[in-house]
Design a protein that fits this description.
The protein has six helices and six strands. By secondary structure, the chain is α/β, with parallel strands linked by helices. The chain has a six-stranded parallel beta sheet with strand order 1-2-3-4-5-6, covered by helices on one side. The longest helix is centred in the C-terminal third of the chain and has 18 residues, at 154-171.
């Protein structure tokens, strides 16, 4: 990441991982949706005061509200990511209208974590105002593991970035 001048964002799975990541001066944590309602872990992470991205795929709005209160109480910057925790997710399951709903409900910017095969979810999320997009990338979609099948290869990822940037620019402003 240093060589490429990009931020390293890592999902810690336990308190020991958080300690190690803090020691190497990570700039952003990512909490997986499976831990977004692990309130003890959220409290521990938020006390580190490192900006945190929180996936919401396996949580109810009530659980996310508790997580929000924990991060607010500990004055830790965070962002929720709307996602569907199925791999790969189909367009009919994306429920992108959750993005503006969550933005209004939680008074926070909402990102999107796409677990689909294509680009429609990510591009739609950008059109709905998502400022952060998570998309899995792989060397080979046939590799073993849960994420590869729902990932883009690097050429398709570049296409997504280019298209996403064009959609963002196309949003423009409210001036006529």
């Amino acid at each position: 990441c240093k060589k490429l001048n990009i931020d390293l964002i890592v999902t810690p799975w336990d308190e020991e991982s958080v300690k190690i990541l803090k020691k190497i001066k990570i700039k952003v944590f990512k909490i997986a949706s499976i831990d977004a309602n692990n309130f003890h872990f959220c409290d521990y992470v938020s006390k580190q005061k490192i900006p945190t991205i929180i996936s919401s795929g396996t949580c109810t709005y009530d659980e996310l509200n508790i997580t929000k209160k924990i991060f607010d109480r500990n004055k830790c910057p965070f962002m929720f990511m709307h996602c569907t925790s199925s791999y790969p997710s189909e367009e009919k399951d994306k429920n992108l209208n959750c993005i503006p709903y969550m933005r209004e409900k939680f008074k926070k910017e909402i990102g999107f974590s796409g677990h689909g095969l294509g680009m429609s979810g990510s591009v739609g999320a950008i059109a709905l105002g998502a400022k952060v997009i998570e998309k899995h990338v792989t060397l080979n979609r046939k590799m073993s593991g849960p994420d590869h099948e729902a990932s883009l290869n690097y050429n398709r990822f570049k296409e997504l970035v280019d298209l996403g940037n064009k959609v963002y620019i196309s949003l423009g402003n409210t001036n006529k």
